[in-house]
# Entry
Amino acid sequence: MRSALRIGRSITEPITRLCTRMEQIGNGDLAKHEPVPSDIFELRTLSEGFEDMAGRLNALMEETTQKQATLRRMELALLQAQINPHFLYNTMDTIIWLIEAGKNAEATQMVSDLSNFFRFSLSKGKDVITLAEEESHVRSYLQIQQARYADILRYTIDLPDRLADVRIPKLTLQPLVENALYHGIKMKRGMGHIYILGKVEGSDVVLQVTDDGAGMSEEQLHRLVDSLDRGERVGFGLSTIHERLRLLFGEGYGLTIHSREGVGTTVFVRIPCETQKEASCETCSELSGSGSPVAGGLPC
# Structure
């Protein structure tokens, strides 16, 4: 009789402790505990599996929390870069000059562009917006700058309408366009042109910002690419954008840079082809001819 009771307790007590431990895990206690002791191999194995699972969940949650904190810091850095006092001073000076010259319609348009520029920078607190919204942000910026640099700046934006709902982290293209203006177009003599283009490659969207400005030597380009790969802070927002895209989407995404001295520079942005509405998820498959839904990255 005693032997039967002892055998029964050797089974029921570990099971009770396992049930208690599972309740603790369900309530958020993911710290790895010592497995429940038991003479029964299957119960020991089950308890060890629970603790390994809890430990992995805990590590994953910590990694996710750290990743989100890093992404928030990057977004804040990009937002801070938008509040550029020189950009604001110069824009306001141009608006005043237009009013004094009696060009009220142009002044009104510039005020509207400036308002849109900051409105799209904030995007109601959203981290990810549509490509159409990102295009509007870039267009507002370029219209402001073209009013200031009418003698040296032309631009072309050619993003297919059917990619309008593709999702993109906000503040991805505008810093690249600003970089093209200040480090490309303004560094050469005469008129310059900035091109913003987009296309589908398989299950990805590839955007490009090209300028026909000063360009870079092979040595400068090599240093820049190496710095991006090492995660060093270089260029106007380049490393922040590159690292942010890789954190969000994976190692296969981010920036690729081509440049030739005296010819110009192109920055390619690769992101997954994902759309704002589930019904639109076939868009990129149709455009690329793949015939299959797009997977990975952000959910539709």
User: Anything to note?
Assistant: The first helix runs from residue 2 to 26. The domain at 83-288 is CATH 3.30.565.10 (Heat Shock Protein 90). The CA atoms of residues 202 and 288 lie 6 Å apart.
